Amino acid sequence: MAYTSVNSNKSPVFDNSERRSPSIVNLPPTSSHSNSTSFTMRNGNIMKRDTTDVDHLTKLLMKSMNSSNEPNFFGMCARCNDEIVGEENGIVAMDRMYHVSCFTCTMCGCRLRGMHFYSMENKPYCESCYINSLEKCVVCARPITDRILRATGKPYHAECFCCIVCHKSLDGVPFTIDALMEVHCIDCFHQKFAPRCYVCHRPILPINGQDETIRIVALDRSYHIDCYRCENCKIQFTNEEGCYPIDDHVLCIHCNRIYSRTMFGHT
């Protein structure tokens, strides 16, 4: 009979969903854009936007300012489509112009000038609403702001995905689950659930590099191959030297006959 580790070849996978870094909207920018700092995420690192981004915003501002006869014209608001008069009333964010009063969090409506904000599907969110929109780790219940590790259909922080027994990190490591869907490393799963040998009382485990091992079952007991021997003379049972159990004892044919004569007077 083979003993197999259930799901032993599974490894956790990472969700490639985009994680955002915040932008900051300060006072209304002039053509120099000296009062506005934006950040973007590149290869997992937060970096300042390059010169081409700043030049693009400058051209956008200058084009909008030239489209009206109003001397204090700042631009057209991307939200309400009305003119923005006076640079103190306008801001540039997400490559667009807005009234200060129009550039608000999509969820809670708070004004975002001077605050960190996140852009999702070209909509701005304050930091609090963005964090609340994230999936939460099933272990610690905190929002996952970095990589999402998915295993058994659930989201985890990479550092929270650990063996329930030894607490070893299972990030990128094969794991298995029990009937209660609790996560175990392979070693702990075997130690906890593998059948135990009736003779030596050690777990019957696959050797390194294999997923299965052979266990022998006799009289509803489990045995290692090497431990499956005659209780009396200790000869190892083989296909040629079979087991002849009697009165809850596993015996070879020779010892079976001796036991029978002793206990029952059989010849």
Question: What are the main properties of this structure?
Answer:
4 helices, 3-stranded antiparallel β-sheet, 3 domains, 18 strands, Cysteine Rich Protein, alpha+beta
Structure write-up:
With 267 residues, this protein is an alpha+beta fold. It folds into three domains: 76 residues, no CATH class; 111 residues, Cysteine Rich Protein (Ribbon); 39 residues, no CATH class. It contains four helices and 18 strands. Strands 2-12-13 form a three-stranded antiparallel sheet, with no helix packed on it. A three-stranded antiparallel sheet has the order 3-10-11. A two-stranded antiparallel sheet has the order 1-16. A hairpin with a 2-residue loop joins strand 10 and strand 11. About 12% of the residues have low confidence.
Largest sheet: 3 strands, antiparallel
Shape assignment: rod-shaped
Overall mean pLDDT: 78
What is the CATH architecture descriptor of the largest domain? Ribbon
Please identify the top-level CATH class of the largest domain.
Mainly Beta
Cα-based radius of gyration, to the nearest Å: 35 Å
Number of helices: 4
Biased composition (Polar residues): 1-11, 28-42
Keywords: LIM domain, Metal-binding, Repeat, Zinc
InterPro entries: Znf_LIM
Domain LIM zinc-binding: 75-136, 195-262
Secondary structure elements and their pairing?
Blueprint: E1 2-4, E2 13-15, E3 23-24, E4 39-42, E5 45-48, H1 51-65, E6 73-76, E7 83-85, E8 90-93, E9 96-99, E10 116-120, E11 123-126, H2 127-133, E12 148-151, E13 154-156, E14 175-177, E15 183-185, H3 186-193, E16 212-214, E17 216-218, E18 221-223, H4 253-264
Antiparallel strand pairs: 1-16, 2-12, 3-10, 4-5, 6-7, 8-9, 10-11, 12-13, 14-15, 17-18
Region (Disordered): 1-42
Domain LIM zinc-binding: 75-136, 195-262
InterPro entries: Znf_LIM (IPR001781)
